[in-house]
Structures are given as structure tokens and as C-alpha cells.
Amino acid sequence: MTTAAKLNIVPFVSVDSMMKLVLAIGVERFLTELAAYIEEDFRRWELFDKTPRIASHSHDGVIELMPTSDGRLYGFKYVNGHPKNTREGLQTVTAFGVLADVGSGYPMLLTEMTILTALRTAATSAVAAKYLAPNGARTMAIIGNGAQSEFQAIAFKAITGIDRLRLYDIDPSASRRCAKNLAGMGFGITICSSGQEAVEGAEVITTVTADKQYATILTDNMVGSGVHINAVGGDCPGKTELHRDILLRSDIFVEFPPQTRIEGEIQQLDPDHPVIELWQVMAGKVAGRSSDKQITLFDSVGFATEDFSALRYVRDQLQATGLYEELDLLADPDEPRDLFGMLLRAGAKEGVVA
Known about the structure:
This protein is α/β, with parallel strands linked by helices. The protein has helices at 15-25, 27-43, 114-132, 149-160, 172-181, 195-199, 244-249, 257-263, 278-282, 304-321, 339-350; strands spanning 9-13, 54-57, 62-69, 73-81, 95-101, 107-112, 139-143, 164-168, 188-191, 204-207, 214-218, 228-231, 240-242, 251-254, 276-277, 296-299, 325-328. The chain has 2 domains: 9-115 and 306-338, ornithine cyclodeaminase, domain 1; 121-302, Rossmann fold, CATH 3.40.50.720. The strands form 3 sheets. The protein has an 8-stranded parallel β-sheet. A 7-stranded mixed β-sheet has the order 2-3-4-5-6-1-17. α4 (149-160) links the parallel β7 and β8 (164-168). The longest helix has 19 residues, at 114-132.
């Protein structure tokens, strides 16, 4: 069946199917192709509906909806962030998403997005680094070696050529697990005993920690001139990773300023502190890295267009792979106005009186 053959049947990509899809394509190829979709949509930035994500915050975490549309397709993601979940054997972040046709309003895809969010976050980080990292950078420090760390490493290797990693986590077992998972993938890996040790000699610094609090993962003295900082972990109000002084020394690049000023590292700064929108760099409207001494900071919080790109990419893989299930999601009466009659006929078929 084609994905459009029966409008009441919606392709559903389960966790199992997503894993099979990623492995069938290959992780590096998947990230590279996904990055191309993300970059394409950043270049089309002005076409998109844009709004900060709709967030419901609690003491334990946050639940968010992330919608956008390019006028032809509509997409949204449901996602949570609950740092305490790890202690209970649960994922910190889970997600699912929908892609729909604007013309009819009918959904065209329902998919898991826990794995897909990790992939799109890493792909976005690496796309940004294409424009912002020092030329020829090969060494990256990753501070915070949780669920996102391997994806970040592989994306940077596939897209920017990073092949040396310096890992640090407050839990040494997390660094050991990360190193083990990446063994045989072409990296030289050093497990470090502190954040300070991890950043020594690194041209790119990725911070990707999970605690929901103001934190100082990087202090000002740890950051020398010429580095690129990929700040991933600060992604909600009250959660940051970098000392404010680092921000004041950096050229800061963001996805959507109204959202980043609420959730990103720049929540520490004045509301009018100058930032550069990443789409403008990709579209050639403003410069990215402009000198060897420049400190560039990608204040990554994740934006709905990136999920939209990921949904588009996955949908485009379904025909060739067949890695989806057919979900009977939408009512499809013979006469569109006769929804109750459809119910009656179903009851008669089953021998049930309405």
C-alpha cells in the first residue's frame, strides 16, 4: 500500500520500526541525510509558522507541544523533560510526533520521536557547527555523557570530521558506557576526570547535562579563544550550563530568539542582548565564524522546524523500507456526513444494538 492509498489509514512508526529504519539506513547516513533536511528547512525559515513551544512546567519536569507549518504540511511533537526519571529507571525525555496535510487536515504520519529527537538534536548541532566551528576542528569535549552523547559524537564525525573525543561526566560509568558504545567507530577517545581536563585541547565543546537547575558546567577560565561551544543541555527556564561571563565573550547563535531567551543560556542576559539567528547564517545573510579568535556559541534549545524536518525525512523513507504499521486512526464513513450511520452499521455487523 502507498501511504496515500487509504486516507483513513495512517502510517505509524513504532520504536521497533524506528530502530530498524535507522539501522537499515545506517546511523551516519541517517544523520547526514537528516541534517540536509534540517538545513533545507532553515533556509526556508521565513515560510514557517513560528511560536515558542507550549510548555506545562511542574516541580518534576516539563511537558511541551512543538507545532509548526510551512503552509503545505503541519507538524507537531509532544515531548517531556523529567531529569528525575533516570533515578526511577525511566527516560528523561520521551516524544512522539505527527505530520499532517494542511489542505485536508488529515494526519499523514504518526511516529515515535524519543529516538528521533536524539537524532535530530545531534544533526542540528552538527549543521550549526559546519558554519561556526574552527576550520579543520577534530577534537570535541563532551561534558555530560547521557543519552544524547553518542548521537552528538557520530553526527559531528559524519558532518564536520570530528574524530577525537574527550569525555567527562560526574558519573564515570556514563563515560565508560559512552566510550564502549562508540568503540570501533573511528574515534580516539579519552575519558577525563574533570570538565577542566575534558576541554584541554578541544576545539569544540559540547555541554549536554540533564539536571533541571542553574548550573555552571563551564566556567569562564575553561574557555579559550577560538573555540566553538555547542550548548545543548540548557533548554528550559531555570536550567543553564554556562557561566554568564562566557556568554558575554561569545558571538551567540540561536534558533528562535523568543524561545531561546526564555529557555536557553541567554536567559541569563538582558532581554535585548544581541544574538544571531542561525537561519540567517545558513541563508548567507550574515556571517558565521569570521575569525580564528572568535568564540562561537550555539545556544541550542531545539525548535519545532527541526522536528518538522525529521518528520518529513522519516515519511520519505517509508516507501522504500516498508518499516511502518498501518494504523486505523480516522473514521471513514461511506457518506462523510453520516458518522452515526457508520456506527449503526458497525453495530449491526457485530450484532450489537446502539
